[in-house]
Amino acid sequence: MATNWGSLLQDEQQLEELARQAVDRALAEGVLLRTSQEPTSSDVVSYAPFTLFPSLVPSALLEQAYAVQMDFNMLVDAVSQNAAFLEQTLASTIKRDDFTARLFDIHKQVLKEGIAQTVFLGLNRSDYMFQCSADGSPVLKQIEINTISASFGGLASRTPAVHRHVLSVLSKTKEAAKILSNNPSKGLALGIAKAWELYGSANALVLLIAQEKERDIFDQRAIENELLARNIHVIRRRFEAISEKGSLDQDRRLFVDGQEIAVVYFRDGYMPCQYSLQNWEARLLLERSCAVKCPDIATQLAGTKKVQQELSRAGMLEMLLPGQPEAVARLRATFAGLYSLNMGEEGDQAIAEALAAPSRFVLKPQREGGGNNLYGEEMVQALKQLKDSEERASYILMEKIEPEPFENCLLRPGSPVQVVQCISELGIFGVYVRQGKTLVMNKHVGHLLRTKAIEHADGGVAAGVAVLDNPYPV
Ligand code: ADP
Ligand code: MG
């Protein structure tokens, strides 16, 4: 995709002046992060990194991504309810991946005891890149779906004003009007509010499981604020506090500090390093309760890369979404090549192909949060090492998506204004609520565009690689 902003990107002086204005507007709008020096305090904050200009995205692909979001919501929900599918899919992975194994243990334990939870809430974000096809046209390909702690819905609500500002300064009024309004935090909050309402206890609270060091606090506050505006109160607690102050009554209602909890919203608990023994105990306590977990443990497992890979196998979507051929077709159209590395011929062949053409593949462990995947020479070394070991089943192999790079300016606190070659990743936020067997809410609630310099293979905004952006539909 070419940029619209070609000549503007040539004028260094103008870029610097524009950047100053953009940064001030971003600060005024609340596009904020705590600093890495003081991640526990809001005394000193800075702007979240963002692009100076919105990046061009074909409207057809935006529409496609929005249109398939409800299907992804249904799919995740179906996987989370299919214990046999989860068990079979994750069997060889959990033998070699301790983190997935521990999540799976809790899942089994809760199933055995009987699930007390009756209302289910999914807040997810499906991420895509625009694969440059043989004829040069971009094609929407899913990178992954995040079923736990999907972030930046709050800040993404505030960035449109910044890009409109930049374009207005340039007297590009028509262009400014093309920047889509976006309010994922409101939609995410409406999902939480619905789950809270169905839980049905007027004095119960929402419990946000928070990290000790949280730079992305303002993103989370955007959701909390929306809830408070609906008279739903949120308390923030760390896992440690739950293990000390959390309890279940005889009906498995969850209490923290003596207050009943209707909804548990995890903004922690998606990486191994976030769990001490005490935290695993707290997670189990939460899962055993009848409070609405977002996500419940099965839905977190539904978001693993291994599940993503198995879903791409012939017949899987049809099995999980019977009688819905249109949804199945929409979903499948977004799938990139995904390959199992389980022991056996199929896995051997995938490894051979990746070793023969490393630039066409990505090696992924069962991890979230960015910076875990292996590419190029690193991938080759890892594959050679893993080849004959069962450990390889804890990874999947994925076709590498190659979008066409374009130019933009990435603005970061303390960095000079520079035009660089970039690629973007589009995320669509989805919300669903299920009560028993009835889906009572299923919708898309907004988008997130993140852009990064092409030299970084991996990593999101939190990892310090990508920056916030807005799609400029063309
Ligand atoms: P995580 O759960 O750590 O976010 P992802 O699967 O989203 O894992 O990968 C992290 C980043 O790596 C993505 O944001 C994207 O930039 C890059 N990436 C992942 N998969 C691919 C792929 N198949 N092709 C190209 N880049 C990829
Ligand atoms: Mg990701």
Automatic annotation (TrEMBL):
Entry's cofactor comment: Binds 1 Mg(2+) ion per subunit.
Keywords carried by this UniProt record: Acetylation, ATP-binding, Glutathione biosynthesis, Ligase, Magnesium, Metal-binding, Nucleotide-binding, Phosphoprotein
Cofactors named for this entry: Mg(2+)
EC number per UniProt: 6.3.2.3
EC top class named in words: ligase
Catalytic reaction list: gamma-L-glutamyl-L-cysteine + glycine + ATP = glutathione + ADP + phosphate + H(+)
Source taxon at top rank: Eukaryota
Binding residues annotated for Mg(2+), in chain numbering: 144, 146, 368
Subunit comment: Homodimer.
Protein residues bound to ATP: 144, 305, 364-373, 375, 398-401, 425, 452, 458
One cellular component term from this protein's GO annotations in UniProt: cytosol
Domain Glutathione synthase substrate-binding, residue spans: 205-302
Pfam families, A to Z: GSH_synth_ATP, GSH_synthase
Protein name: Glutathione synthetase
Family label: Belongs to the eukaryotic GSH synthase family.
InterPro entries (UniProt xref): Glutathione_synthase, Glutathione_synthase_a-hlx, Glutathione_synthase_C_euk, Glutathione_synthase_N_euk, GSH-S_sub-bd_sf, GSH_synth_subst-bd, PreATP-grasp_dom_sf
Protein residues bound to substrate: 125, 220, 450
CDD domains assigned: eu-GS
Pathway of action: Sulfur metabolism; glutathione biosynthesis; glutathione from L-cysteine and L-glutamate: step 2/2
